[in-house]
Input
Amino acid sequence: MTERGRFPEGLLDTCVLIDIDTVDDTRLPIQPKISTITVAELGLGVALAGSPEILTLRTEQMLEIEHVFDALPFTDTAARRFMTMANLIAVGGRNPKPRKMDLMIAAIASVNDLPLFTRNADDFRGLDQLLTVVPV
Output
């Protein structure tokens, strides 16, 4: 961390990115990053918008996010890390299937040596050896 107590870089989970306007900047990394999985999740939110108003707002938010961030990809290395993480979750007695998108984002953070900033820190219990989780 920097002298100001903030991480220089970090990967934002989708839930943090969606709520970015309500999150205190001092709780975020100096240089936030996103993943291609987050872009896909946002696109799903656009596709499933329940009204023209929601569609318009989500589309605008997604276009702005795509303009501001270069998304980190889900690579072969990240896929292998995802499998390890899913196994650790299963060994810990939890089902990794409902968490698969979150675990894919976590795998991208892990292989890029980035902390993961999330509102759902409990979803990543048992992955401490592979991932730094920063609750927001």
Remarks:
- The chain has a mean pLDDT of 95.
